[in-house]
Amino acid sequence: MLVKTKAIVISTLKFQEKSLIVKCFTLSNGLKSYFVRDAFSSKKNSQKIAYFQPFSILEIEAVHKNKGTLENFKEIKTAVPFQTIHTDIVKSTIVMFLSEMLHYSIQEEEKNESLFMFLETALTWFDHHDEISNFHLILLLEATKYLGFYPDVSEIDLPYFEMNDGVFTLFHGLTALTEHETNLFKKLIDLKFDNDQKVFHVIERQILLKILIDYYSYHLDGFKKPKSLEVLKEVFS
């Protein structure tokens, strides 16, 4: 089947000497993996390696056989030409980390238009703004709305957040955050991308990042802690 759709690059894996396996989150079909032959060839190639940087947003034409095997691109072009994301060291580190998080989080080959549109809007905002200290935290929390485990905020005034059940509670159970951690988490829930980025100190961001990674671990089977986490901590230290 020939498909034309937007696609967000989630991860790449070098195959042999010159080829790539590219995992994309597509608007039309959810998660898809593609084989790119001779991606590292010195010859002029329409499927340039530059297209496949983390979170690049592409317009693709591809052949989908839908047999659980690698698919193939026919045409690729940039759908959203980023100005800063792949050239600014802080931003490129953040997208490397976030793409790795989503690599372990989006596990279904199912269409999820609302998640795709959220990511596209968030990345476009990120590309055009400089105050981005909390971007990764807000994106990871907001993404849980589309992944199916956003916190139940109906009892948000209660003092503890229970990680396993995703609810606020009166009691400090085994998998509950401390009162201090819960207060930080509540503050994060209220944040939007355009809010004051200096609302958290460095240590508080590190606490929140650990909370979010643990929260993903509780709710996603097979989730792994991103290897790029330590690089991210260095950038924000």
Would you tell me the structural class of the helices and strands? alpha+beta
* Oligomeric organization of the protein chains: single chain
Mean pLDDT: 91
Percent helix range:
25-40%
Order of helices and strands: EEEEEHHHEEHHH
Main sheet overview? 5 strands, antiparallel
- Unreliable sequence segments: none
Strand content: 15-25%
**How far is the first residue's CA from the last residue's CA?**
48 Å
The radius of gyration is: 19 Å
Outline: globular
Number of strands: 7
Record the strand order, biggest sheet: 3-2-1-4-5
Record the SSE blueprint.
Blueprint: E1 2-15, E2 19-26, E3 30-36, E4 57-63, E5 72-78, H1 89-105, H2 113-127, H3 135-147, E6 160-162, E7 167-169, H4 179-190, H5 202-219, H6 229-235
Antiparallel strand pairs: 1-2, 1-4, 2-3, 4-5, 6-7
Helix pairs in contact: 1-6, 2-3, 3-5, 4-5
